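Researcher: Let's try something more involved. This one mixes different molecule types, so please make sure each is placed in the same coordinate frame as the others.
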Amino acid sequence: MYPQLTQIHALTLIRRNRLLPVPGDVNVRPGQKVNPKDVVAEASIPSRHYLVDVGRVLGAHTSGEAEKLITRKTGEILEKQDIIAETSGVFPRVIRTPGPGKVVSIHKGRVLIEAESEKITLLAGMAGRINQVIADRGVMIETHGALVQGVWGNRRIGCGPLVVDETSLDGELQSSTLGVTARGTVILAGMCTSLEMMNLAASLEVGGLILGSMASALIPEVQVLPFPVILLSGFGRMGLDVDSRRVLTTNAGRDLSINAMRWNRLTGDRPEIYIPLPTEAEPYKVESAYAVGQKVRVHSGVYAGRVGRIDQILPGLTQLPSGLRALAVKVKFDQRSGEVFPLVNLDVVQVID
Amino acid sequence: MVQDSTRVMSVLGLEIGSVNTHGFLFDVVEDNYRLIASAVAPSTHVEPVFDLGDAVFEVVTKLQEVTGRVFFGHDARLIMPSQAGGEGVDSFVITTSCAAGLNLVAFGLLNEVSLESVKRLADSTYANLAEIIGINDRRPKNIQLDAVLATRPDLIILSGGTDNGANRSLLRISELIANSLQILPRSNRPQVLYCGNTVLAEQIQHSLDRFTKVKVVQNIRPSLDQEILEPAMEELNTMILDKVYEKVGGLQRIAASCSIPPRLSNEAFHRVVRFLGRQYDPSKGVLGIDVGSSFTVASYSNGQSSSLNTFNYGMGEGISMLLDRTNIRDITRWLPEPMNDEEARDHLWQHSVYPQEIPATPGELSLELAMARQVLRLAMRDLAQLDALPSARFEPILISGAALNRTATPVQSLLTILDGIQPLGICPLILDKHGIMPILGAIAEFNPLLAVQVLESTAFTNLATVVNISSKVRRGEPVLSARLDYTDGHYTEVELKQGSIKSLPLATGATGRLRITMLRRSEIEEVNLTGEPIRVNGGVCGLVLDARGRPLKLPADDTTRREQIKGWELQLSTK
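Model: All components are placed in one shared frame. Result:
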């Protein structure tokens, strides 16, 4: 059984793909250095159109007749009021474009004009070097540095210097942490359960917020914030886990980037924090089984967010306090006696200090 | 007894879900097909493996260990057909529900006719109906076009017109589809399913197949008073499965070894319910609900008509959709112990992040079952709004889903189902404890005997036959007296009071004769009591008499309500 993994590394080689949802243009070359907010690729998706029925407007009896009246070709760029079609004769009647655009098709006497297209820009999401260009789709970026994976994000990308304020590390994000110097910085805090603090962070235009956990009641507001909010342990009051906290606090003051995407297990995309460092490192290896001594983090319940070590893998199925039976392990926190958890309620935390 | 005309076959079935992959081995035991063994492993099409092969290998290896039989050859391939020494299996079948995130756009003509049908067709699938456009849509054509493009459709359904009926309107709609397809990049163009006026099929196919692949099936509304969804449903599911192949790593490779192409779980689940609908009393109808992680599937059949609805809320990844439509109080009110709404909401959101998680403590189990009640309530409400249930009386109700199968006691499952569905009349409740309904539906395509014999076996749990009493009398007043006669001559008598629930002992497989005398202002809805005894079947929870009222009203006071909920469980647990 493969364990659910969370990567927390003080120094590793990080490689990440950044891909467009539709084919587009890649703006960078292999080897090029990029910053988190650099646009590495872009595509346009047509979003607003005019559909002009020439046959109906000019009274043509067949679509063939209508097409003969059309004076434009597919691909032509039109200005507002340009003539699209006209009848012949002494008093010709004309159809003009309702606005500027591009003729994308002429089909059965109807002219389809693309008036506007939505530009999709693909941001690098991390500082690093382009390792590979994936034609028409995107890039692979690599960097050496610290990596901390989260469990939820508000779908924003951001960057800035990391501010660590002891008053907010062990509990709620405090207003004292959000001073006037917070503008453009990334703030680290144990948790946030207050909409007031979120609004204060937004008014100060922080560069991002890294939280151990957050009240789920804040989701609607956090989803529309302009800066990234990443949760490292999840929803509730569990705060920061010890390993994430150590890696992040030791990098206080450094520039980091947050890619607060949603966790997509199908693609492996996950909310992450990257801190580029000037030292080279090897890529981390993915563990494929549970083992005694492994670090694990509890998902929920009284121990939610706590990191311990597997002390014993229990044989067969174990009856849990709920009455259910499951594959389980005994986990030790500090030096205390072990607690039993079902395997599926734990993340194996891969840590390289 | 296996008939001579049917070759005895062992079948390996895999049900691939978004969280877990279940494996089942069926074979003949003493002349009847039986479920021999089952195994489960986490699905591995997700990180860090991105290929289902590992989950399949783990599940089949577990089945080998449990049964002592060998299924893999030296080349690590499945041995098919089975060998003289008993190695291998004769057939291999897959069903899957890994289909989240697909967008459908539907086109039709009139709201009450083709659009209604096309909506029912779309509602039956795992996809999300993102946009629906008919001829009475008042938006200008260019706005309709932009709306279609904004959904980034994965599939388009075009319906409309009775056979030999309207054609100009339908052709105009198909032009709009052609315009949309022209604009989309070739690699992102959705396939089109045409299920409208048969006379126009060739013309529409010809006009659209320049842009994309067009599949043509029988008209879903051949006449105004006739609706035939099945052929379109089958083709639509095949098209969805093609999309699933693109997203689920390894599925296509494994599917190549299957005896029949993989089936979507909801379609296969519905096949079983339809089969049962033909066997039971058509005045009642069979209701099947499968509560999954991402989706909730509701299937109904009474022999003459059937419906399949797939709702995009569930107990794992589907929690966010559930919470979008639910006041958290509708979940926490079912908890037997205090838990504040914030804590409950945080826990449920956390569970949506980790859908594979299981309840470790009694409190977590209570919250999961409270959520299951709300999923069932919402599904019943949606079915009523969609007019999908001709009757509120079912025989039987079949329930599937991990949350309801893994309870600590059968009483917990029973109460969750009763509180969620709140059935009327007299109905048997059956639990698909292994989650084999979809696999049986798929196997039934080539071995119906296996499906029938396993359905009649102990692979399913008869929870109870439940008698649901409605009454207008005050709480605590008697509503019914009953006498249950056992086949051995013994009997038991009971008087039931308004607001209570009681279980009479009647073991699984046993039958009894129930005489009911209704007291003041009480009735069993849709049941005509003639005075003759009613034959009832037993279950693990016996025969249950439920006089808690319909709709079930919970006390407003928190303490009283919690005591009440604990009391009901205690009443059923004490026989």
